[in-house]
């Protein structure tokens, strides 16, 4: 019997989304889940993505429902790798060729799948004592590593007083407590949930610490193109770690859910980087990754990866995709400004600059659990218990209502 099962935690993000959908209130606002919405509050299939969908429907290819290989579509995984590590689209230089030979890549079931495959691989073959995650981090990081049985530790990340990255305490904790062979989970850009990233100088210090203490960097890259507005800038930390000498082993979980708007098509890749000293290693790693993938779900899905590889391979569509990214990121920046200005106008007690200083899809508001509950119960505004809001839920028609509601709960 299963009557004595533990009471498994409900995923807050999806539970909140469910509650929002079920709410019939006309003024309800969803600031919970991190999905892009237009100014009208609608999902937005990217224009570059739609072009490929039209192409695919015209082609009517009889092979469109066939299996992918276990490692995934290698045209896709190579394009994903080149985007992440900044390899040029032009003819490859000998240095680029050597750099690529350090990387084992497989297609995954989006970012969660990439995090999972990476965690499963490392748990089996690297056996870290601990995984270090930022406090706070995306809650699913906890679930993914807990399911692998790896003990989780937290390093300080967010300083609630300054609303900035708690660099000194993060470094001090890792210096004192992280052990050789531990894994550290790092958000490549647009940290979820805080919207606060390390500066380049801070990244360099983290990289140096990892290298010196032999801590294995595990990057989660879910927002490339959403943070700085530049794909290169958003991959800066990953590329810095990758290019360090002496070379480090590391890995990257890469999601295309947000930057291609392919949420439900589960499109992603996992890259494991060797130090390049043994050319046979990459093939062996890929074989072992495939072994795990085959045993779990055989291979990743085809539709999203077909779209991404085609957009990335076509210079015109790639340029259009850059424009699509700019559409999304600029709307988020406008909404940050709108909310901030309205709070200033209302003279809402407290400081709110962090709303415009934080980047990416999320902002950490600093609202308390009681205030967050009141926002939901009285104003039908849904946000995470941590105070994280998804900026994309804001629109020209609801930001004033959201600001008034914040003003109301803050003044109690
Ligand atoms: C979020 O944090 O809201 C998104 O990344 C969606 C998810 O899968 O949790």
UniProtKB/TrEMBL annotation:
EC number: 2.6.1.1
Aminotransferase class I/classII large domain boundaries: 27-406
GO molecular function, one term: L-aspartate:2-oxoglutarate aminotransferase activity
Superkingdom of origin organism: Eukaryota
Top class in the EC scheme: transferase
GO cellular component: cytosol
Cofactor(s) this protein cannot do without: pyridoxal 5'-phosphate
GO biological process: aspartate biosynthetic process
Record keywords, A-Z: Aminotransferase, Pyridoxal phosphate, Transferase
Record PANTHER family: ASPARTATE AMINOTRANSFERASE
Quaternary state and interactors: Homodimer.
UniProt similarity note: Belongs to the class-I pyridoxal-phosphate-dependent aminotransferase family.
Record-given protein name: aspartate transaminase
Species this protein is from: Talaromyces rugulosus
